[in-house]
Amino acid sequence: MSPTQARAFLAVANAGSFTAAAKALNVSQPTVTTQVKDLETLYGVELFHRHGRGVSLTATGQELLSIVRRIYANQQDAVEYLQAVQGLHTGQMRIGAYGPYHVIELLSAFHQRYPDLDSSLGFANSQRLQDDILGHAIDIAVFSRVERRAEFHTLAYNQSRLIAIVGKTHPWSRRKSIDVRELNGQPLILRESGSELRRIYVEMERHHNLKPGSVIEIGSREGTVAAAALNVGVAMIFDEGLIPEQSVCKLRIRDVDFVAQVNVVCLEERKDNRAIRAFFELAEEMRSV
Description:
The protein is α/β, with parallel strands linked by helices. The chain folds into 3 domains: 3-86, Arc Repressor Mutant, subunit A, CATH 1.10.10.10; 92-157 and 261-286, Periplasmic binding protein-like II (D-Maltodextrin-Binding Protein, domain 2); 158-260, D-Maltodextrin-Binding Protein, domain 2. 42% of the residues lie in helices and 25% in strands. It contains 9 helices and 12 strands. It has helices spanning 3-15, 18-25, 29-43, 59-86, 100-113, 126-134, 196-208, 221-229, 274-286; strands spanning 48-51, 54-57, 92-97, 118-123, 140-143, 152-167, 177-179, 187-190, 214-217, 234-239, 248-254, 259-267. Strands 3, 4, 5, 6, 7, 8, 9, 10, 11 and 12 form a 10-stranded mixed sheet that branches. A two-stranded antiparallel sheet has the order 1-2. Strand 1 and strand 2 form a beta hairpin. Helix 1 crosses helix 4. The longest helix is centred in the N-terminal third of the chain and has 28 residues, at 59-86. It starts with a helix and ends with a helix.
């Protein structure tokens, strides 16, 4: 059954005659008659009883009418769903980030503006986030290390400076800064390989010829801060705010000026998706770079 035949059948069933159906569809009466007759002939069925005052549905026609009405109802549901997505009244945004601080402020503002959209947020290092964007596992990522690739659409959102943190009982806890060379011989707490922080530290180590006492690798910012608070070592982190200063002390590293640029990233081919574009527009309004 073609869509045209289904529409003609439904119009005749609703109107009670071929003439009234043709008027409702704004086509000629013979056109409607032919479409219904072709449908009956194709399947060897009788859908209407014809009589002088119009038509009435046969038992087969009654059953078919309920099916066709469901088809058109589902079609309308589909249209209304797509219109809701178009207006950002439904759907889901999948977001990945290096850490919670910049992305949470963005996600909070986005949810306030588009409260009907569902969101999911996961955390990973920079390399994993790039892979997830390319693999369509997430829609948007908020992180610092972004390779210059034609596949990425990028907005510079904020900046974070590399600092050291130590626990409250550490010998450096009353200081405001350290010389970079004082890191020699110290046990260091670093993020995992593949992270932007680890990349920057390796560059700093090479540039200043540093020789730490040991390196403890921790796969999350929260774990890094917790380890520093327990005096496991001196931790390297980006100063993104919301550091629990009741547990650790921040130290500026003199002679070091490493700044990580925080970016909002999506696939270039998906930047015009309505939800993604709305997120970027909000980030543009809020950015401080």
